[in-house]
Amino acid sequence: MRNKIVAGNWKMNTTVKEGVKLAKEVEALVAKVNNAAKVIVCTPFTHLTEVAKVINKVALGAENCASETSGAYTGEVSASMVVSTGAKYVILGHSERRAYYNETDEILNKKVKLALANNLLPIFCIGETLDQREAEKHFEVVKTQLEKGVFDLSAADFSKLVIAYEPVWAIGTGRTANGQQIEEIHTFLRDVIAEKYGKTVAEECSILYGGSCNAANAKEIFSTPNVDGGLIGGASLKADSFLAIVEAV
Ligand code: PGA
């Protein structure tokens, strides 16, 4: 049985103090509900050490890590540094990193390998832009992102990844992909993974949906075949709306 996962992506929001407060609230609510889903909060680097101290049931993730091991890379934070805070996960390949910081498939491939080498589990994001969707290139785009980003991993390493499908046009826009769009692409992704790594690996891979998922639409999205949870941006910044999404999975 593959894991159901709800991961919050705080992005560049909250001060350390606000983040600790939010994490405490999420932890308290998650501890109260009897839910088998794995709940993760992915926070800015600056918050990781402090947030790690106040969560227990909730797992910790970073939003990025460096593509190099260590050394003269001013401003970068390595996978081993992230792990040393207590974080277990790292979001890699988010469309905001791809678009605003020019993170190519090649750079992301290096990051994924460094994360894994440091026992940090990547939540690897893929997804098409609106132009690509309108040109009906979305299947091709997500397949290429997998092929170039992670398909040179061994099956054992690939099995450690969480995949998140996030159509760029749905992120932070209030516009979600509809049930049919989500189902067809998640099914396609599982097929592509099965072709590369075999049916067992594909069946065990958690594939999350992300993009304007909220308390009101989560239940419907999570009931879609081949959707194993969500990567949540805006709605993860309030403990109660995040919990409602956790309960929906
Ligand atoms: P959103 O962001 O839920 O605010 O659309 C999702 C994400 O970017 O991971």
Walk me through this protein's architecture.
This protein is an alpha/beta fold and 249 residues long. Helix content is 44%, strand content 15%. The chain has 12 helices and 8 strands. Strands 1-2-3-4-5-6-7-8 form an 8-stranded parallel barrel, surrounded by 6 helices. Strand 1, helix 1 and strand 2 form a beta-alpha-beta unit. The chain is globular and about 45 Å long. The site of 2-phosphoglycolic acid has 13 residues, from strand 8.
Summarize the structure.
The chain has twelve helices and eight strands.
SSE blueprint:
Blueprint: E1 5-9, H1 16-32, E2 38-43, H2 48-54, E3 59-62, H3 79-84, E4 89-92, H4 95-100, H5 105-117, E5 121-126, H6 130-134, H7 138-149, H8 155-158, E6 162-165, H9 179-197, H10 199-204, E7 207-210, H11 218-222, E8 229-232, H12 239-248
Parallel strand pairs: 1-2, 1-8, 2-3, 3-4, 4-5, 5-6, 6-7, 7-8
Helix pairs in contact: 1-12, 7-9
Structural class: alpha/beta
Count of beta strands: 8
- What helical percentage do the residues reach? 40-55%
Order of helices and strands: EHEHEHEHHEHHHEHHEHEH
Strand content: 5-15%
The main sheet orders its strands as 1-2-3-4-5-6-7-8
Average pLDDT metric: 97
Gross morphology: globular
The biggest sheet amounts to: 8 strands, parallel, barrel
State the end-to-end CA separation: 15 Å
Number of helices: 12
Structural descriptors:
249 residues; alpha/beta; 8 strands; 44% helix; 15% strand; binds 2-phosphoglycolic acid
